[in-house]
Amino acid sequence: MRHGDPGFTVYVDGEIRKFTGRSNAIQLDGSDGAVEIFDDESGTRLAAIQLFEPEDVLNDPWTSDVEVPSGGHLTYTLGAEGNPPRLVLSVRHEAQASIAPSTSPEPKRQARPLWARRVAFAACILLMLGTTTVSIVRYDQLIHDLGWDEPFAVRFAAVDRRVLQVNVTVNRNVIREVFIDWGDSTNPDPAPDGIRIYPSPDAKRYRRTFVISARHEYPPVSGEGVSATARVRLVPFALPRTRPETLTEDKLHHTQAVLVTTDGIILDPPQARLRVAAPEPQAIVSTATELTVEMSAIRAPVHVFGADATNPLTYRYLGSIPPPAPGKKSREAHVVDTSGLGAKGSFKLVLVSTSLLAPVPAQEFPWQDIPRAAPRAEIELRHAGAILEPEPDAAVSGIDTVRAVASIRGQYASVIVHPVREGRFWVQNAPLPALEFAEFRVAARFGGRDQYEVWVALAADPTLLPEGAVLEQRPLADSAGRPVYWLGPVFVHLE
């Protein structure tokens, strides 16, 4: 309803509201919601007005100006009058000709900061009711509940083993629509924003706010569970070019990381972390390679694969490491057999935490069959060399050939036979200069019937292991502190 054809129309909760008396004034009450002013000529919404408590604007009316696309500007004032006080909205439209030129119209009076309005209103309550400072706290909570600090609130909660609930509180004068996408790959929500859950007849109204609750049940899971990301998008009514801080795009989009497990739903699950703490990358290691592995939030077995430089696209299964207890971290040493790797260069160990694979010893996988999204760690290592002959568990004669290759420079090679029952280490040859990746052969002597270990030692000191020497234990370094690299052992028995 227009009053004197002012060139604008006021809607309250979507209905035209009449002016009263001879002034352009509208009386409002606490049950009124969205108050909007539209330009009659262009149909443009000129203002969406946030309502206050009558006591808050009784002695301090809120006044502001807006430009009208068809010309001139509109001045609206939200105040209160009467006893008890009631909200009154007055509107005045001034044509362009009656206004002094101005490039950037300013509000007639800047509204006081929110903290000042709170203090003033709280003081009024204290004076009228004679109550204690507890009233200030309660009033502050009331403002927060009405959404004056924030025009919305989003909260997620796990309410059952596989059920996720979201509670969204919105100021109905600010937020127009709410959408949710539960991130369930087995039952995807409509693109691009998901399901609209507000407006909804199920929403509960509390004065100027609505509370919307929605639930979703994820499908049964196994193993380490399934990760998902729930997304809530809030759509406000039309906003000015410069948005309030509470209505920026990042705050209108809420995400919640979810891990659905056999034990229940975990909100904001810690990021799974898998790391090889030792040895260092490119380190020279023995064939019985010791790895120190750190795990955090790992829920599935960690499978260890080896990839040789000569065939980097094929991963050979070497063994598995159990995950730590749920919610625990671990740092433990584990030994894997890498004897079949690195004969002609470096090799890579790949650790993958997944329940999607059930490998068997020595099984080979194409690289594309290893799950890429699973937690993983990789490290590139080298062997000092490799024993090529005899093969493990071979039967040897009294004198037999040991064939080996060194993969590092500047070393002298010695073949050593260790009878398991006798217990000492017998040096079989004078140290040979070992050329990088060049094979060498040594005739080794085996004694009586026994189980034997065949070792090859690579040392920088050519005098450390003379031919015929008998050792009680294997030296790990020479007199200068340089390491001795040991290849093996290869277990054999006498024919």
Q: Could you please describe the fold and organization of this structure?
A:
There is one protein chain. This protein is mostly beta strands and 495 residues long. 7% of the residues lie in helices and 46% in strands. It is built from three helices and 36 strands. The chain is rod-shaped and about 115 Å long. The N and C termini lie far apart (112 Å).
Keywords:
mainly beta; single chain; disordered N terminus; Immunoglobulin-like; 6-stranded mixed β-sheet; rod-shaped; 3 helices; 495 residues
Helix-strand makeup class: mainly beta
Percent strand equals over 45%
**Count of individual domains:** 5
CATH architecture of the largest domain: Sandwich
Describe the SSE topology.
Elements: E1 8-12, E2 15-16, E3 25-28, E4 35-39, E5 45-49, E6 62-67, E7 73-81, E8 86-94, H1 114-129, H2 134-146, E9 152-158, E10 163-171, E11 175-181, E12 195-198, E13 204-206, E14 209-217, E15 226-236, H3 249-252, E16 253-261, E17 264-267, E18 273-278, E19 284-285, E20 288-296, E21 302-308, E22 314-321, E23 329-337, E24 347-353, E25 364-366, E26 376-383, E27 385-389, E28 394-396, E29 399-406, E30 411-419, E31 425-427, E32 432-434, E33 439-445, E34 451-459, E35 470-471, E36 485-494
Helix pairs in contact: 1-2
What's the short version?
The protein is mainly beta. 7% of the residues lie in helices and 46% in strands.
